[in-house]
Amino acid sequence: MSFLEYKELIEDGDTAIVFLGHDYMFPVTIQHGSQTQTKYGVIRHSTDLIGKPYGSKVTCSKGGWVHILYPTPELWTVNLPHRTQILYSTDISMITMMLELKPGSVVCESGTGSGSLSHAIIRTVAPTGHLYTVEFHQQRAEKAMEEFRQHKVDHLVTVKNQDVCKNGFGVSHIADAVFLDIPSPWEAIGHAKDALKIEGGRICSFSPCIEQVQRTCLALEEHGFTEINTLEILLRIYDVRTVTMQIPDFGKATEDEGSSESGDTAKQIPASQPSSAMFKSGISPKESVGHTGYLTFATKSLF
Ligand SMILES: C[S@@+](CC[C@H](N)C(=O)[O-])C[C@H]1O[C@@H](n2cnc3c(N)ncnc32)[C@H](O)[C@@H]1O
User: At which positions is S-adenosyl-L-methionine bound (predicted)?
Assistant: First the structure.
């Protein structure tokens, strides 16, 4: 399998997602003779999975069932083994859009971390673009490369194990975009400028703290970047629910009030009016996912 294209049938060696529910899924490597435990019982890879279509509903040994899904970068983000804090799809989609990434784009990134953003970038720039990703923690760099190979995207990515603040990205004047997710991004702005194409490009830096943002913005300005903007994304998901609304009691109403001197002759509204009504409505959450980080964007322009 490859994260770049879909295929029909589950095969030995694939990475697949075992889906029990929207908030309960995990990745498995499909292997002849292996088995996977779930709360619904065992799944045997040879008999239950290999040769079945992706998306199949598979019955486990205790009678419950799961779905086996083909992995995408979005599913990988919510299932990958965490070696660091990671970026999630809400921030990733804004980064992809604001960096103007597309097939053929050349991108420099640091740090690689757990490879959550890297997978999304690679899928976006395929089949002709390239990602240069720099990670100074040796095991993380090696693990990321191993996953890129397993997911058959390694021809689109170069992993460098070095300090981006000291040694940069190892490439000069070829990038359309640079992304930084490191504790001191201001120390890497000069290297980012060098990695970007002579004619310009876009940069984004992700930082959880506003003090980091301030220092990064100053460094961007010093290096001649323009259009410096910082934003954060707060996701608010609405549920559609059937709600009950109490109808307020305004007392007895009369029709054609004043047509008679005494109220006695006026028609009374029947007392059988319902006291509540049920209808479907969008309900805002009591709690929302809060601050993840600030996204600072800027442009390196030719002029
Ligand atoms: C928060 S993680 C990045 C997560 C990544 N964006 C993802 O979505 O999975 C930050 C990574 O940057 C690496 N890092 C920090 N400073 C660095 C530097 N100066 N050069 C290279 N890598 C660095 C850390 O080792 C860590 O793995």
Answer: 114-117, 135, 181
